[in-house]
């Protein structure tokens, strides 16, 4: 009898649509197997031939955390290119490297957690480097390009599956897992949701990751917007992956829910499909889901929904068709692309004719970052490395380039007269340098086989690098940074500061006639003991610091001998502003300001090249040239040298406003971009440099502007001409503003479109934009929907948000404003027009908004244009908690005071009614709140 092979199950049948195949596979899984799929690390189901799977592979600007990979500029640098085609090609290269690395290491995941589309609302946010722009349109254009590259070009299968971070309104590291962003409806719909929506609708997004923080009092991992908005933007199944540890935060740090079983169930019901918690240990998440099922908090159908979203992504990745997308790793094309991206990311902020540098120029390259190629937390290890100094050597010749780092050279003397001494690393245990001469920090950091610091009569001269705000690093003459391992001893054992907890940073604290040296990673002071230097909780050693040479003296000496000085200043991405740590000021660190002044005093031909993950407020009036670039990856130094030499005309543009002073900034936790006039959209001050700004080595003329509205769109066209003598790229930008807005505050100007143009000398190109009328809409809180206000709209064309070269006006037909139908729907409390002293909070733990007075217990709300019909006689308020509500009409008109019910829980609402007699017609309503209450709704009746 002939044995027949078992029939191929439908989920393995490539002729069937993915949805049917997902349904078939889902039906074959047991409940226990499906529950196990909800953790980040999904086990294999061997009986079905289903492989293990993991969500999460960091790939923000190259493959991260998996060893060497091509390192592209930071995300904010990619945003500064304003070039979606370039960014798409970068995403494509990154996805190829993911596939190539996956072929040799199954730890490399195909579900990539990139890009970050959080808007760069506040420049002090520690993760500024991870976003693209402060503008939602530019952010979505760049993010869409990157996700398309990550997705790949196959018509059916995806090379990688991108997940957008971090849903929603997330711009602070300070108290990031317990703070709440108060986001009014207009900001929610016009700003924070917008970047996510456009990117998801473009069709190359596999999912999102909720943020750690709360929005309007509710954790993002319980966000009702996941179902109400996100899943309505596409017909594809989207995979929602939790951020690391966030499911447990719902109970442990946020205390939002009482039990982990209840919190896990609530997150799953809100739309979270994959739980990233407790590392590789899935047992606790599995136990919580099982417990929630047993208690009736979840059904098997709820689990099925989440697993279906995951399986849909896995089918798109080709896992069940044995389809393997081609990979490529560290190719000549990827190296060239890394250099091109680094060149395009450089923004020329100021130039009084000093740049480009003339052939034969003698250049002094100075500053803390002059011979550095810094990585950040989401970088891969460098395969290739180019510092500004190396780039200048390569481009101008070593004989014409001099260098001074500008660090202080110091020794530390102990009370017994000896000095701290760095012992050489034993030759047998020292790791070999890589091909570029750099030691792999993974081989050095945390090592305990190297000798700790000792003491001797002469000691070791250390380089003291002051990064500002009292944070410093100490480096031995051979380049090794002082670091502290788990055993507490201080060793010269790190190539660079780094790690989740940086172990290479210290602080000098004055004490008596000397200093205590505090190690910031442990919080303990340095103690000199007989068995070596270590950190300890008690008996710190008082050290006397002697300075052998000040950094500014070395800079001044080097600068005086050159034709031009290039001061390379900025930040280390692991220090003073990064994930878990916000900045406290826009100012350049004081030590770097001293170096800049020393260079400028010694040589007026000084170029400031800022290399940083975020904007600075710098005094630039005395400087003839200023450039900025984000940390530019492996080709950063070559790129900077080529731009300085004029081999490439700079084409980067600022993706966010550079403010002149800390006083221009709102509070870090103030998410109301409209009310506090944030970003270029609303900022009314004078920026240091505006959004969209960037100069070139040539000039461009704009002309022949036409604009017409017809058939549901606005067609805008204009000409751009390169009027200079060299080929260069221009970023032509189109903005709009409502010329005669109603009482609703509208942006000063708003980016509608841009085009990245490369033009030969004398070349003219016509730029045309076709804009749907929806681009001119705003969120009408009175109607709870988007609306186009009829009337005139200014169209502004130019080279930045402030450098407007052409303008015209179009008249658009729209829907006139209508008064609030308060007799029918009342006033939802959060739908205010203006507020003072108010925060938006959660009405219930599942959905809805309420408002509450902020810190001092008083607040006021304004609702404009309320239609009272033929008149009203009563007012009602839906409130929880204790306090008082005062409702007044037209400010000085009728008013009513409603004492809230006796103090109750924040979700125990009651409706109170009292007399309020007001004549018919349209009125403004003011509502004052006093005390610890929550107001959900105000109603009127005749």
Can you describe this structure?
- The protein is of the alpha+beta class.
- The protein has five domains: 10-321, Alpha-Beta Barrel (TIM Barrel), CATH 3.20.20; 342-406 and 551-650, Rossmann fold (3-Layer(aba) Sandwich); 415-542, Trefoil (Acidic Fibroblast Growth Factor, subunit A) (Trefoil), CATH 2.80.10; 698-812, Immunoglobulin-like (Sandwich); 822-941, Galactose-binding domain-like (Jelly Rolls, Sandwich).
- 20% of the residues lie in helices and 29% in strands.
- The strands form 15 sheets. It has a six-stranded mixed β-sheet with strand order 1-2-4-5-7-10. Strands 11-29-28-27-12-14 form a six-stranded mixed β-sheet, with helices on both faces. The protein has a five-stranded antiparallel β-sheet with strand order 40-43-48-45-46, with no helix packed on it.
- α16 (590-602) links the parallel β27 and β28.
- The longest helix is centred in the first third of the chain and has 19 residues, at 84-102.
- It is globular and about 90 Å long.
- 53% of the residues are buried.
